[in-house]
Predict the 3D structure of the following.
Amino acid sequence: MSANNAPEPRYWEKLRLIAATLKAVEGPVVIIAHEDPDGDALGSTLGLYRALKKLGKEAIWIMDPPRFLRFLPKEEEYHPPLERLPENATLVVLDAGDRDRAVGAPVEGFVINIDHHGSNSRFGQLHLVDPTRPAVAMMVKDLIDLLEVPWDPEIATPVLTGIMTDTGFFKNTNTTPEVFRVAAELVEHGVAYAELADRLSWRPPEYFKLTSLVLGTVAFHFGGLLVTAHVTRSMVEEAGAAEEDSDDFVGLLKTAEGSVVAVFFKEREDGVKVSIRSKNGVSAQRIALALGGGGHVPAAGATLPGLDLEAAYPKVLAAVEAELRRVGLLP
Ligand code: 5GP
Ligand code: MN
């Protein structure tokens, strides 16, 4: 497994082709994203869905959002997962590195794949993969401009959400000047920014109980270069929380002074899921690829099927150690 992290050379050409294709479609457009959807998965799909509806297209948006994002879609916008695609459908898959990562509908028929994961398998009849784009929501912003849909707060709000969450609220290294320019433009289209930022940060009471349990597992390795923590299913149960309540913890670990890699382990029924974050030239993506996963250079993940936490830790530590050696941080 490897990643092609080069910018998409024919970005605008391909995006214009995608816009022309979507403008011309007569059948339904089904829009889906990756499993365990994050703000970019939800924001980019919901923004495109609303824009296509405004164009008068028949659009179907399929997602099961985590609780902290559930305030964004309206009740009537939800559609149950599809076993089969409707006749004459076009499938748009956003923010999903591979066809296996996409959920909600079978990835078949005419597929448009728009993503920013360097490890994307470039599936689909039309694919636009640009790892230099900070969020798929940035690509959807360009697409909506090309579709010439008039912007309104309903469309701009989810799109800005994707940009905010995938840049770590304008803190990650992918926060380019363009991110601020596009964000400013979206706010000009009527997004209630402070309200949105506040709403995105709400967490339920169970989250705080779970935090107290998870903090007890924080450990430092390799002289503090790596920081880890984990959540078990029994901790989630004890806190009365949901697994998604632990999605933020890797971001908290990342703030450990002196660390260059943060790994958060989630115990699942069928294995362990790891979230990996890195900085200072260390590649979370390389670590994830070594573990059979994928993602971006600074933020990546993997699923280790059939392992328990005790077996997952040494495997992950070995992959991190190899990457720390590669960049010369370990002898
Ligand atoms: P997170 O750790 O927040 O779940 O994911 C971080 C990044 O890595 C996201 O862009 C996500 O799509 C990617 N990622 C997470 N888990 C996996 C995985 O199991 N396989 C692949 N290919 N990518 C993953
Ligand atoms: Mn994304």
Summary: The mean pLDDT is 97.
